[in-house]
Specification:
This protein has 309 residues and is mostly beta strands. The chain has four helices and 17 strands. This is Lipoprotein.
Length: 309
């Protein structure tokens, strides 16, 4: 059977016959969140984890932030990929080719290792991963013929995303296929977090107020570069604004605060996918009447607890 791979890089469809065909479009991403279920609604009838859909094998895509995945295609089901997104940065980094202790650390042929389905599958502990299926139904596909069953999405094609949660598939978003962002792992992470945090309620009263902290990052010809972080925390919301010198202003705006183990985990909640991460962007803890933050600045300060004003 022809091995068909759907790698969602701005609607890129790849046919796995040693050649790749890329069609990319960049546009503003509009996600349609799933609607709450009613008694008359059913989840998608496809069990994307069924072993019969794994016949093409697991592989590691050649992405900046790689992850295990497999794909399936036929004219009845359509096309889908099943992505395994690590629940921590450490697990995600295991699949990075530059990780000296990771999956590729003992091979001199990473391209071959990236296609070794058995080896990849044995290294996946499902409890350590969020499992996301991206499905392009048959009604959105034009089959162009040929020995390989080549196809392309229709102009109005929409891809639906599902999260495997509580032993069932939950729809977590829908997007025009041509507008799927190139940064797949960040895009899917954003969908995952919006799903798993939607029922989470944290009372942020203990952290309420305006809190700031400044750090120097590196020397420049005109002085030390620096970043000032200004957090505004209310009972239910967190926002961040920055003042910088010789540094880029990134990842401002809305954040989600989750209280866990007597600390406030802060996740980016905006539209810049480059700011999305599976781990908290910042962590704040309270010691007596003082607040301390971790995750700011560069290498010298990033892993240190810094006193906030």
């Amino acid at each position: 059977m022809k091995k068909i791979i759907l790698i969602l890089l701005a609607a890129t469809l790849q046919s796995c016959n040693g050649q790749e065909k890329n069609k990319k479009q960049e546009a503003k991403t509009t996600i349609v969140p799933h609607k709450p279920e009613t008694s008359n609604e059913k989840e998608d009838s496809i069990n994307f984890l069924d072993i019969k859909y794994q016949s093409n094998g697991f592989f590691i895509p050649d992405n900046l932030d790689p992850y295990p995945t497999y794909s399936f295609s036929d004219k009845k089901t359509g096309v889908f990929s099943v992505d395994f997104i690590g629940k921590t940065n450490e697990i995600q980094n295991f699949w990075n080719s530059s990780n000296k202790n990771g999956y590729f650390s003992k091979t001199d042929n990473p391209e071959k290792e990236a296609q070794d389905s058995k080896a990849i599958k044995t290294r996946i502990n499902e409890k350590d991963y969020y499992i996301v299926a991206s499905h392009l139904p048959t009604q959105f596909i034009n089959y162009t013929g040929g020995e390989d069953g080549e196809f392309e999405p229709k102009e109005n094609a929409k891809t639906t995303f599902y999260l495997f949660k509580d032993n069932s598939w939950k729809q977590i978003g829908e997007i025009e296929t041509s507008k799927i962002p190139e940064n797949v792992i960040a895009f899917e992470t954003s969908l995952i977090q919006k799903e798993i945090f939607k029922t989470t309620t944290s009372n942020l009263t203990a952290y309420e107020g305006s809190h700031s902290v400044s750090v120097e990052t590196e020397a420049t010809t005109t002085g030390m570069a620096s970043i000032s972080y200004n957090f505004t925390i209310t009972k239910s919301n967190v926002s961040l604004s920055l003042n910088t010198y010789k540094e880029t202003t990134l990842c401002e705006g809305k954040y989600m605060g989750i209280e866990k183990n007597n600390q406030l985990e802060i996740y980016y909640w905006g539209e810049e996918l480059s700011c999305v991460s599976i781990n908290p962007k910042f962590i704040i803890k309270k010691d007596k009447n003082q607040l301390y933050i971790k995750g700011i600045g560069g290498e010298a300060t990033y892993n240190k607890w810094i006193l906030m004003n």
